[in-house]
Design brief:
There is one protein chain. The protein is mainly α. The protein has one domain (about 5-135). It is built from six helices and no strands. Helix 2 packs across helix 3 (about 55-70). The longest helix is centred in the first third of the chain and has 18 residues, at about 25-40. The radius of gyration is 16 Å and the shape is globular.
């Protein structure tokens, strides 16, 4: 990303934060990074060869995996510092990014796609336990 593109991104995120102060700027950058991570995991659309659309539920899985890889058991602390209390907050961030024209949406996309009932804390703790078990058996 060029310096000009980075400046424009920062400007748009700051504008979003002036309208909605619930989440830190790091939360917005994390969601954009997690979307890139998710898209790379899912691959391109088999029919068109283009980047495929990522729905809310798919993005939540990507967010959990990316956060676990990046932060391990400390992911929950990072989310807390950024103002994220649960999966629904990611929907709010995504729709703020859509409003800022940094992401696009389909008519079927909804904030409700981000309400999945999973406990992020338990997800990260379980992944950490598995990693510790794997290390212990070496």
């Amino acid at each position: 990303m060029s310096a000009a593109e980075q400046d424009l991104l920062e400007e748009k995120i700051q504008a979003v934060r002036r309208r909605d102060r619930r989440f830190s700027r790091n939360a917005y950058y994390f969601v954009l990074d997690a979307l890139d991570y998710t898209m790379s995991k899912l691959g391109r659309d088999a029919l068109t060869g283009e980047d495929r659309h990522v729905g809310g539920r798919e993005l939540l899985v990507g967010i959990k995996d990316y956060a676990a890889d990046q932060f391990g058991p400390m992911a929950t602390l990072a989310f807390d510092r950024w103002g994220i209390r649960g999966p629904g907050d990611f929907g709010e961030i995504v729709f703020n990014l859509i409003d800022a024209e940094l992401l696009s949406r389909r008519p079927s996309d909804s904030r409700l796609d981000f309400v999945d009932g999973h406990d992020f804390r338990e997800t990260f703790a379980e992944k950490h336990r598995r990693n510790l078990d794997r290390i212990a058996t070496r």
